[in-house]
Design brief:
Elements: H1 2-25, H2 36-67, H3 70-74, H4 81-87, H5 91-96, H6 98-101, E1 106-111, H7 123-140, E2 142-144, E3 149-150, E4 158-160, E5 164-167, E6 172-181, H8 195-199, H9 206-218, E7 220-226, E8 229-236, E9 239-241, E10 246-256, E11 267-278, E12 284-295, E13 297-298
Parallel strand pairs: 10-13
Antiparallel strand pairs: 1-12, 2-3, 2-4, 4-5, 5-9, 6-10, 7-8, 10-11, 11-12
């Protein structure tokens, strides 16, 4: 019996030593060590702070833009001295058309088409070319007769490529017709050659506007009536080939939403202009005058009859 008790005591002692060893190998966790939950919480807090900072930055920028003038907001191209020089109207043009340009609703502008950067082999020169073309797209190749300034093509009435005049296409209905070689002073509101521009009735609905856009994109051949008889036919379209010395008639009809307040750009204008200078690189100078201006169209969500013409 005593031997059995001694054996049990030895076993208990061994078990106790093992237990102490196990406890010693797994010390209690340190209170200053972050748990997995703490890490997740910290990451979430950092992300929330980043989002709050970005939101605050966006709000500040929006407030700055609301306070700035429209022209300052939309026209910030880094124009090179070369591009600025190319955009200047030649003094002899200003002198030759000085009488016309002294009247209201007239002007002379020089439009610069984009160049072909793909033929430039040096990377540095190609980069400069693409940057210059970006500035041209933002400023030099398009013009708004409604706002009387160079502007983004998306906000403009007309722009140019190396060979063509191109009418604007965003929230505006445009059409252009080549009248051939003639004096700009020979065209006015009553000219039979442009009677269609004034009689054209723009659709008020978006569906109707799109249909008219497609018709004009494909070109509409219209005959004029002169002295009670059918005159020559002319093509009204979205594009027209640039020809030196030719006079063009142009109409731009801006659309706005039913809930928006009208701005200066929300107008319907009829303009005639003449190509008075054209360079080999495509730079084109035109002299223009506005024949008519009235409020633009309000885009209707439902199908309604079109408004009267001009």
């Amino acid at each position: 019996m005593k031997k059995r008790l001694a054996s049990c005591a030895i076993v208990l002692a061994v078990v106790g030593l093992c237990t102490v060893g196990i406890v010693a190998q797994n010390p209690p966790s340190r209170p200053d060590r972050p748990t997995q939950s703490d890490i997740v919480k910290d990451n979430l807090e950092r992300r929330m702070n980043t989002m709050r900072n970005l939101d605050a930055l966006a709000r500040r920028q929006a407030e700055i833009e609301r306070r700035e003038e429209l022209k300052t907001r939309y026209f910030r191209p880094e124009l090179s001295d070369e591009l600025r020089e190319r955009m200047e109207v030649a003094p002899d043009v200003l002198q030759a058309y000085g009488d016309l340009l002294s009247r209201p609703d007239t002007g002379a502008i020089r439009l610069v088409p984009q160049g072909d950067c793909t033929r430039i082999e040096r990377l540095s020169k190609a980069t400069e070319c693409y940057q210059e073309n970006a500035n041209i797209r933002e400023y030099a190749n398009a013009f708004s007769f409604r706002e009387k300034l160079h502007t983004l093509f998306g906000r403009s009435d007309i722009g140019i490529t190396s060979k063509y005049f191109v009418g604007g296409r965003h929230s505006v209905q445009t059409m252009i017709v080549d009248l051939g070689q003639m004096e700009l002073s020979a065209v006015d509101r009553d000219s039979a050659e442009i009677s269609f521009l004034f009689s054209f009735v723009p659709e008020a609905s978006s569906k109707g506007m799109d249909a008219q856009f497609d018709d004009l994109k494909n070109g509409m051949t219209v005959a004029s009536f002169e002295n009670g008889a059918v005159g020559r036919t002319r093509n009204y379209s979205k594009v027209a080939k640039i020809e030196p010395g030719h006079v063009y008639a142009f109409r731009s009809i801006a659309y706005r939403g039913e809930t928006t307040e009208p701005l200066e750009k929300d107008a319907d204008v009829v303009v005639v202009f003449k190509v008075v200078d054209r360079e080999e690189d495509g730079d084109t100078t035109i002299v223009w005058k506005v024949l008519s201006r009235k409020p633009g169209m309000v885009m209707k969500m439902s199908e309604e009859p079109a408004a009267n013409g001009l």
